[in-house]
Amino acid sequence: MVPNMSARRFKRRIFSSCFLLLGLLLCLEPSWALQFYIKSGQKKCFSEDVTASTRVLGEYLVTAGPGKLEVDLTVTGPEGKMIFHKENIDQGKFTFESPAGPQHGQRAGGHEAAGEHGAEHREYDENYEDVWPTYNYQFCLMARNGDGPETKRKVTLHVSAGAAAKDYSTVAKVEHLDNLEVALRRMEDEVRTILEELEHMRAREEAMRSINEAVSRRVLWYSIISCLVMIGAGVWQARYLNAFFRAKKLI
């Protein structure tokens, strides 16, 4: 049997290991990076859906190569609005923030809940954007003015969103934070991002539940109306046949 002190040390080590593992998982930044070759006259576009009030950071690098070739980068947001544009890029960054969405518990259109269950569940449209809006952004690269069709360049595009898009080196300089404080700040932001994702999922589940309830009510009323129509048609048909047979003196 393990003594009490050894058991306590063992539990303390397990707790420390779990905490360290959690910290490593939280440090995993939600981002994506692409590396590809682009030839003269080619255009390549990539899209990303971003939730409301989310900061996005992009980094690009065009590796030099033989011949002449210019690569342009254009970032467009919802409704085709241009967010960033630069011609003949080589290396740099761009950043933007998605528009703010509705506050928690509110709809984008500001509609009120209907019916006696409105206090518990709000009536949402079947469009999920009405609950938790997301915005689609396009990242397009265009190669032009090349020496020939086989002239190409290697492009690296890295896009981060949320806490991963925050520049903690600048935060450390401005707020005079040491490495441990910066790590704690990063972990705090990651936890906040996870909580926002959980809130995102909760809002989506609430919306889907409201949609299912609305569809169930419509199906119920449709079934009732169908039954009433069928009963009415049967009664009318019976009366018609009875009158027809009496007119023919068959009964």
Automatic annotation (TrEMBL):
Stretch list, region Disordered? 96-122
Q: Which Pfam families match?
A: EMP24_GP25L
**Membrane topology per record:** Single-pass type I membrane protein
Ranges of compositional bias, category Basic and acidic residues? 109-122
GOLD domain residues are: 43-161
Q: Does the keyword Cytoplasm apply?
A: no
Is Metal-binding given among the entry's keywords? no
Keywords assigned: Coiled coil, Membrane, Signal, Transmembrane, Transmembrane helix
Q: Name one GO cellular component term.
A: membrane
What family does the entry list?
A: Belongs to the EMP24/GP25L family.
Specify the protein name: Vesicle-mediated transport
Organism field: Cyanidiococcus yangmingshanensis
